[in-house]
Amino acid sequence: MFLIAGLGNPGQKYENTRHNVGFKTIDYLAQSWNIPVKKIRFKALIGEGVVGGEKVILAKPSTFMNASGESVSEIARYYNLPPGNIIIVQDDVALPVGRLRIRQKGSDGGHNGIKSIIYLLESDQFVRLKIGVGSAADDMISHVLGTFSKEDGVAVSTCIKVADEIMETLMRYGVTEAMNRYNGFGKTEAE
């Protein structure tokens, strides 16, 4: 069994912000796998289904970004999931817009949602699918709570549209194979 949680902020005000690429990815996976994410449990919207013979829980924590660990840890405890069976989809300001990076473990990298999850899971041993949203020259909060330009939105959508392949690779073949196949996806000719 795997938990795939996309990070974001609830509410229409935040719907199309850079910080909500995790939510957008869960919406895409829900549609691709025909798993409705409509149940309210564990301080999240969740959906359960089977993908490639594996039970999958899709979650969109409704706690706001900085408290994402409250929801993720509740789900993990309830289903007795080890951290290695948790996949978090997050925005990453250290990556260029539209680039992907998969990490098996590690620090929070300055991401408050990841910091909350590490603290409440008492572990950093969960997989992260990072989607690049680029960085800001000055006000990072306004940047992550801002919306994408049309061109950047297309680049990020291209990343989201391979999320089902990435998740299936992670669940079937493991994190090393997924990193080998997808790290650096989205690199443009200009880079």
Walk me through the structure.
By secondary structure, the chain is of the alpha/beta class. The protein has helices at residues 21-33, 68-79, 112-121, 140-144, 150-160, 163-173, 175-182; strands spanning 2-6, 39-41, 44-51, 54-61, 86-92, 100-103, 127-132. The protein is built from seven helices and seven strands; from the N terminus they run βαβββαββαβαααα. Strands 2-3-4-1-5-7-6 form a seven-stranded mixed beta sheet, sandwiched between helices. α2 (68-79) runs parallel beside α3 (112-121).
In which order are the strands of the major sheet placed?
2-3-4-1-5-7-6
User: Helical percent range?
Assistant: 25-40%
Question: Whole-number average pLDDT?
Answer: 90
Main β-sheet, in a few words? 7 strands, mixed
Taken in chain order, the helices and strands follow as EHEEEHEEHEHHHH
Radius of gyration: 15 Å
- Compute the number of strand runs: 7
Shape: globular
State the distance separating the first and last CA atoms. Answer: 38 Å
Q: In what range is the share of β-strand residues?
A: 15-25%
This entry's quaternary arrangement is single chain
Number of helices: 7
| Class of secondary structure makeup | alpha/beta
Could you name the ranges where pLDDT drops below 50 across 5 or more consecutive residues?
none
Lay out the secondary structure.
Layout: E1 2-6, H1 21-33, E2 39-41, E3 44-51, E4 54-61, H2 68-79, E5 86-92, E6 100-103, H3 112-121, E7 127-132, H4 140-144, H5 150-160, H6 163-173, H7 175-182
Parallel strand pairs: 1-4, 1-5, 5-7
Antiparallel strand pairs: 2-3, 3-4, 6-7
Helix pairs in contact: 2-3, 6-7
